Amino acid sequence: MNRHRFPVALPRLFLIAALTLLAGACDRAPPAGEGAAPAATPGTAPEPTPGRRVALVMKTLTNPFFVEMEKGARQAEREFGISLIVKTAAQETSIQQQIAIVEELVRERVDAIVIAPGDSVELIPVLKRAQEEGIVVINIDNRLDPDFSRKNELLGVPFISVDNEQSAYRSARYIADQVSEPATALLMEGIRGALNAEARKSGAMRAFAEHPAITLAASETANWKIDEGYRLMRGWLQRHPDVRLVFAANDMMAFGIINALQEAGREDVLVASFDALEQAREAIREGRLQATVDQRPARQGYLGVQFALRALDGETLPGVTYLETILVTRENVDQP
């Protein structure tokens, strides 16, 4: 076994993901000047309105990313004096469960639904029903499909997230720039059909395509999951033993990749990912991960609630708000 092991083996990564539900991490401020759409300003912040009920619907709490998202929403709950209802599906692939959650919230007649949808299309009809009942809908993280939304007359839904394509491009480009000789690259996708997953795939493919020495040998999905990422990487190592670069569309899949590489004794493979979970930052410190992207989930959760209250107050909101991301590498991993 190599002496620079990733700090936790695969079974313990599941434990750490659970423990992260209890652990805190501060939201990090972005660098200035990267051209994000303006977020909410203090002058437009809603006044405290006791009695309003805002629901935050997320994909799961098994991914620490969404734990951080809830923390931001809870901060908004305290600041604005509203009641926050948090609902999650069992897994990021549990789309029908998310639909059932929204149906329940419509029956409960909440004032607003802030949703990070697991799928960009399937949630649209039920969210249209919510809108018809006078419930404000705010979309965060993964974008609802604009064309299908228009077709179903789900209109005027603000979207808060990051530029997934450009951010994934920067992450994959970081490892691509480290090779000068012919190299094989692999791309591990998120859930196919989810617009954030498709955008990250597109960004990584663009980064690899810009380097004539790099050949993208495979692009497959592991559905955002550690265990699927681990199994897929084990198979890839057999089919593509010459692999030098791997981009994973989120950190959870990257953890599976890293463990498969460690088991195979492969220290020559460069891995980049997306989400900047604390375990990913530790992997960067240990040299097992080269780059990840901080997309500020707590800020997304906070602004989702704030935008919901502003919409309830009758304010016209921007259609798209992009937060600035931070490319986290060994050079800045310990910066506050």
List the helices and strands and how they pair.
Layout: H1 10-19, E1 53-58, H2 64-80, E2 83-88, H3 95-108, E3 112-115, H4 124-132, E4 136-140, H5 146-151, E5 159-162, H6 164-176, E6 183-189, H7 195-209, E7 214-221, H8 226-239, E8 243-248, H9 251-263, E9 270-272, H10 278-286, E10 291-294, H11 297-312, E11 320-323, E12 326-329
Parallel strand pairs: 1-2, 1-3, 3-4, 4-5, 5-11, 6-7, 6-8, 8-9
Antiparallel strand pairs: 10-12
Helix pairs in contact: 2-11, 3-4, 6-7, 8-9
Characterise the protein shown here.
The chain has 336 residues and is α/β, with parallel strands linked by helices. The protein contains 11 helices and 12 strands. Strand 3, helix 4 and strand 4 form a beta-alpha-beta unit. Mean pLDDT is 88; it is low at 1-43. Residues 1-25 form the signal peptide. This is Sugar ABC transporter substrate-binding protein.
